[in-house]
Design goal:
Radius of gyration: 22 Å
Mean pLDDT: 93
Order of helices and strands: HEHEHEHEEHHHHHHHHEEHHEEEEE
Number of domains: 2
Number of helices: 14
Strand content: 5-15%
Low-confidence stretches: none
Strand order of the largest sheet: 2-3-4-1-5
Structural class: alpha/beta
């Protein structure tokens, strides 16, 4: 009886969470997931809204909650009980759907999921995990069984919807944007003053929890960064305390030096580490959603190499972590962050960004000229402080409507 009561307490926590979640606003991924698949993975950075997405789906699509269970693997119950015990209980009591949050908390999560999938053939499983998760083909081959989605932070389009304006604007493809941007901008700016919203988005609009935090947003984001490095990183990569400290220090060194590529040998010297371990830390920060690493060609993760340029992942991190804000850097970070969610973005020899190996972009303020990319085919300016563009001059804020 004591065991049953303990398990039942997980159901009570689950029901409280579902009852408390709001269904007013949904992330873009909510409508893209095929929930009929038997094994679904949702990866994403901490704070991007993975838990809310699961709870909203349960609340809206399951009239009979007795068949459903949501649990987070960081629940203290799992300190003394194996997950498979809970799965067995749920399945034998009529459960058909299982939602597992923070799967990276389990040391052998891939083998675990494979066993659950194979041993409970009628059970539908959805799990979420850190963006650091990597699928290892040597441990429990999940590739043939699962569908994996990635949840990014709020696009500028979603931020406007969260603010209660322009909620009827759908995502637009890059190719369409390049052709139709002027008409789209005129339509939107006839309804709202878009530039003040854009300024607020750059400071605090990428993470959905900005709605709850108000003036405490920067402190909450700093805590998220700490948890990514001190909690998610060791859970995924099994690193030492010394490596955690050095990774944290590396981030703060790079925060003050982006976007120029720092002399990484000097950085490694400051961290008292070698090139191999330094690169591992660098790429861990990228996988954790804290850095963006640009190269002239697609990176080969099997042989880590020094990036050609380093940015913070999104503008909110710059405002929360840096003591000096360079608006030019903020603009470039925004452009890369929004484009990289849906497109291939590389570092060109001329200009700031090459997108899909076809379009060349230079990012700047409203007085930016084509001087640096003149005579280059398919070249465009992404300009800030501009409501409506013309021809190949496109307002920077419009690149936040791609997802």
């Amino acid at each position: 009886m004591e065991e049953e009561y303990t398990i039942e307490s997980l159901y009570r926590v689950f029901n409280r969470k579902v009852d408390a979640v709001s269904s007013n606003l949904h992330r873009y991924l909510f409508y893209k997931i095929n929930w009929d698949n038997r094994l679904i993975g949702i990866k994403g950075g901490r704070g991007t809204g993975k838990t809310t997405l699961l709870l909203q789906h349960i609340k809206e699509d399951f009239a009979d909650r007795s068949k459903v269970l949501y649990v987070s693997l960081d629940n203290l119950w799992f300190e003394t009980h194996p997950l498979i015990e809970l799965v067995e209980y749920h399945y034998t009591h009529g459960g058909t759907h299982l939602f597992l949050d923070e799967i990276h908390r389990h040391p052998h999560w891939q083998t675990l999921l494979k066993n659950i999938y194979d041993d409970f053939p009628d059970l539908h499983i959805v799990y979420t995990g850190s963006s650091m998760l990597q699928i290892d083909a040597n441990e429990g081959d999940l590739s043939r069984r699962q569908v994996v989605y990635t949840l990014h932070g709020l696009s500028f389009r979603e931020f406007l919807a969260f603010e209660g304006v322009c909620a009827d604007e759908s995502p637009i493809s890059l190719d369409t944007l390049l052709v139709q941007h002027a008409g789209m901008a005129s339509r939107i700016t006839s309804k709202i003053k878009v530039l003040p919203y854009f300024e607020r988005y750059l400071k605090h609009g990428y993470y959905p929890f900005y709605k709850e935090e108000g003036d405490g947003f920067s402190f909450r984001l700093q805590e998220v960064v700490r948890q990514i490095i001190e909690s998610d990183l060791p859970a995924v990569d099994n690193v030492s305390l010394s490596t955690i400290r050095k990774t944290r220090k590396m981030l703060m060194i790079l925060v003050e030096r982006v976007p120029q590529t720092p002399k990484m040998a000097e950085v490694y010297g400051e961290l008292e580490t070698n090139r191999e371990n330094g690169l591992k830390m660098l790429y861990s920060l990228e996988r954790g959603g804290l850095l963006a690493l640009l190269t002239h060609e697609i990176k080969n993760f099997r042989s880590l190499s020094r990036p050609d340029k380093i940015y913070l992942d999104n503008p909110n991190l710059m405002y929360a972590l840096s003591t000096k804000i360079n608006i030019g850097t903020v603009r470039e970070i925004f452009f890369h962050n929004q484009l990289a969610a849906t497109e291939e973005v590389l570092l060109p020899l001329k200009g700031d960004f090459m997108v899909n190996r076809k379009y060349l972009f230079e990012v700047g303020g409203k007085n930016k000229t084509f001087d640096q990319i003149k005579d280059e085919p398919n070249s465009y300016l992404a300009v800030d402080d501009t409501e409506v563009g013309h021809n190949n001059r496109i307002p920077l804020w419009q690149f936040g409507f791609l997802y």
